[in-house]
Write a structure and sequence with these properties.
By secondary structure, this protein is mostly helical. It is about 75% helix and about 0% strand. The protein contains six helices and no strands. α1 runs antiparallel to α2, α3 packs antiparallel against α4 and α4 packs across α5. The two termini are about 25 Å apart.
């Protein structure tokens, strides 16, 4: 459902500004966006974020700094939601209602996030994290034949969707 607004935006921009083939290109880009969304969902719904991050780091050699940044953001989201509720409650106690569209609420949350990022950086340094150094891993994700075959089936399905919409 979240992909509907960007998909409609792409479709309508192609329809109005795409010339004589605008409708055709709009349908292709609309379906392509959903194909990528479903491909991403197939990974994120079948694998835990931590296992997916470790697999990306160890099998696809994504830099560890990038992986730990993503994991930190995922782990801080529930805390950030809680802190936004606290900020809104503090504003209500002072007689100021902070609505979701007001930048004041997000500015205060951004200040908290900057403080958390500093604490996270210090924690990673104290645990011995050094960029571009070889690392040992507690567990190594194993890519089985079933994983490869499922990936090929999904990739083939996405290609069929794109070809048939073409």
């Amino acid at each position: 459902m979240l992909a509907l607004l960007p998909a409609l935006g792409i479709f309508l921009s192609q329809l109005y500004y795409g010339g004589s083939h605008g409708f055709y290109r709009g349908i292709i880009l609309f379906s392509r966006l959903y194909a990528y969304v479903f491909l991403g969902l197939s990974f994120s719904l079948t694998t835990s974020p931590i296992n997916l991050a470790h697999a990306l780091e160890q099998n696809l050699h994504v830099p560890a700094k990038f992986i730990y940044g993503i994991l930190a953001a995922l782990n801080l989201l529930p805390r950030l939601r809680y802190e936004i509720k606290v900020i809104r409650a503090n504003g209500n106690m002072r007689g100021k209602t902070l609505h979701p569209w007001q930048p004041t609420l997000y500015f205060k949350a951004l200040i908290l996030a900057i403080n958390w990022s500093n604490n996270l950086s210090l924690a990673m340094q104290s645990q011995g994290f050094v960029e571009n150094e070889p690392r040992t891993h507690f567990s190594k994700p194993i890519v089985t034949k079933l994983d490869w075959s499922l990936s090929l089936i999904i990739l083939g399905a996405v290609q069929c969707i794109i070809i048939f919409c073409h």
